[in-house]
């Protein structure tokens, strides 16, 4: 992997890492600004009943930049072998759904739409991971933590829907 990293110009590496990292930050910022109840996402999360194993809010701003960085590195490895092939198309599709989720779940406060989005995202992350693995084994392995986290986030999204039903 070191040779592959050294073979790619630093500007391309910066770009492949910056797109998910900056995009993730921007989607969170937009979700906060367009929030239907004018609440910060941290406040919303803390006010909801959470399913078992829900992490504290401090975990999310630590985990996501790491995941976005590893996604960017994985994509950089793939781009070296296949500039704009099917693996990259899957990558950008899942990235779009990833960015949309914050807006739906927190910005629009529509947990059900967020669940539909994240379920599709989970499928696309799985397909992207598989596709990356076929192009570059290391890239596929770098996507595994993101795949696991997305599955966990799907569980959390579904759990908050179930636990926060309006009283009848």
Give an overview of the whole structure.
The protein has one domain (11-161): TspO/MBR protein (Ferritin). Helices cover 79% and strands 0% of the residues. The chain contains 7 helices and no strands. It has helices at residues 2-7, 10-33, 41-47, 60-81, 86-107, 111-135, 137-163. The chain is elongated, with a radius of gyration of 17 Å. Pfam families: TspO_MBR. Its main location: membrane.
Q: Estimate what percentage of residues fall within beta strands.
A: under 5%
Using the alpha-carbon principal axes, give the shape: elongated
Oligomer: single chain
- Fold-level CATH name: Ferritin
The CATH architecture can be given as: Up-down Bundle
Poorly predicted regions: none
Radius of gyration: 17 Å
CATH class categorisation: Mainly Alpha
Taken in chain order, the helices and strands follow as HHHHHHH
Q: What is the CATH superfamily label?
A: TspO/MBR protein
Question: Largest beta sheet, briefly?
Answer: none
Secondary-structure content class: mainly alpha
Number of strands: 0
Average pLDDT reading: 90
Number of domains: 1
Span between N and C termini? 57 Å
How helical, in percent, are the residues?
A: over 70%
- Our count of helices gives 7
Main location: membrane
Family: Belongs to the TspO/BZRP family.
Pfam families: TspO_MBR
Subcellular location: Membrane
Which terms would index this structure?
transmembrane helix; elongated; Ferritin; 7 helices; Tryptophan-rich sensory protein; mainly alpha; membrane; TspO_MBR
Can you give me a brief rundown of this structure?
The protein has seven helices and no strands. The protein is mainly alpha-helical and 168 residues long. The model has no long low-confidence stretch (mean pLDDT 90).
